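Why this split exists: single-chain examples teach little about how molecules sit against one another. For that reason, every record in the complexes split bundles all components of an assembly together and asks for one structure covering all of them. Below is a record exactly as it appears in the raw files.
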Amino acid sequence: MIDIAPTIATASSRSYSWFDLAKRHRVLLASIFVLIFPFVMPFTALAVNILIYGLYALGFNLLFGYLGLLSFGHAALFGTGAYLCGIAIVHFGLPWYAAIAIGVLSALAMATLIGSLAIRTRGIYFAMVTMALAQCVYYIFYQAVDWTGGENGLRGINVRAIDLFGFHFDFINPLVRYYVVASFVILAFFVLSRILASPFGAVIEAVRENEARARASGYNVVATRLITFILSGGFCGLAGSLAALHLSIVPIESLHYETSGMAVMMALLGGMGTFFGPFVGAAVFLLLENLVSLWTVHWQLFVGAVFVVCVLFFPEGIWGTILKRIKP
Amino acid sequence: MAGLSFDLIALQLFTGLALGAIYVLFAIGLSLIFGMLTVVNFAHGAFYMVGAYAGLFLVSMGGNFWICLVAVPLLIGTFGMIVERFLVRPLYGRGIDYPLLLTFGLSYIMIELIRIAFGTSGYPFDTPELLQGAVDIGVGYFPLYRLFVIGATAVVLIGLWLFLERTNFGLIIRAGARDPQIVRVLGVDVSRVWLIVFGIGTAIAGFAGLLAAPLQGVIPEMGATILAEAFVVTVVGGMGSIGGAVLAGLLVGVVVSMTSLFAPEMAKVSIFALMAIVLLVRPQGFFGRAGLMS
């Protein structure tokens, strides 16, 4: 151990170059990618979907990848954001920006509620409790037919134009729609990067690496978990709100167990605990879904198989494995 | 409230016990696997579903329900052992989340394969002729099949209890749940024990699926719903505790059937409310050991 330590030190100090530079400017790089992304995609609507679910997986990854808590109930956060954003528009006629704010705030509130119950348990229990609580949220929204449309979903979220600071954007145009969503995603990149780079971000990773040591160092592990869960809920709520605007309907499946599972799959496929990985995962998942369903309706078989192979052989995910390879 | 007599409530209580019996079977398999292997089997619902479909297939091939009661657990248990040997085993020692994620992915594959083989829509499952009709149980007429479900569950529970408490192999399982390392030091091949425990757990799940089939029909998604509800059972009862799973399973069944009597629209939500209360008052569950999850 002592012999090789200096070698490693010189190797890493010599290669202090583009990799660290790229890491420091991850928000800029991710944003540039997002801006050129629709031009490499087969159709823009798919690109919008990848953006939205990428954001959803990004929020999930803050909890799973950085804090190490596996939640199987994130559909409740995504769906609450989507439904409340939709309800604000359909039932109260609020403008789109107020509806997004309400979507995010309600997801934060839901995350506070679910989080404070679920963090009373530890370890593997967490996945089960979050899944059960999300199922409960599903039934509640399912029953509240007057507000949510029940089984048929919430319909009629028609946002035709985005008016802001005197500018007028045609929300029907797919490319304009893409860039409206992209601006929110870039904002989310920036906020997430700030959180991770802050002292609190360091505490998050410390809790993941060694809970006992973090506690012994005087950090409040329970509060860190709850705050991270709530922050994660905010990102997922934003993703849900954008999904509501994009689809102009909130299907009841937004709250379904499979939507929770989708975040897990995307984050793991892409690479948990990496900044850009969830995005890669979302892109791979949705491209796979779209391409495979061209010739068979049973695309879930392929997604499931790819996921199982990933768990068995590439636990770092696609982006995580690439990063490990190119890291000097 | 004129229609709510004592007899009606008593009958609903028995309905709840029959429903709870299915939860109990499902949850003890889950609990057994977790207690021994520390694996949360997210594919448990899929094994349950495949059990129901295996019964459907065997009956359509000319077999009868009584053969299924033996054949289905054997088939599903064997399948479970194959899964443990080739998919779950490589993941031991790689963190507690990985087997969970693997079984989660596996459930997708199993559900989709069943959809390919049997189609996406569900099937009714006929109650076996011998168990049709209702019997007078003192407070009114009760479907015979539900009584049979309660009885079959009791038989499985007693058998499992005798196996765990009265056989040498059961002794090894109990010791392995407490401290696998010491058991290994004593010269026991623990991985073989884990293989068999996973097989027993999934066999019980398949059996539960078969028992539930005549009550609610058979659809590919039937496992996902009961999985979430079984998690409630294990949280309420205490994970890894067989006794807890039995008590909590029956309790959840009774809570569901009682709320569907008084407030039908709240029936599904009520069991999650029960879980929330238990989490607030006693986070480790009725019989859970505090600190087991750390």
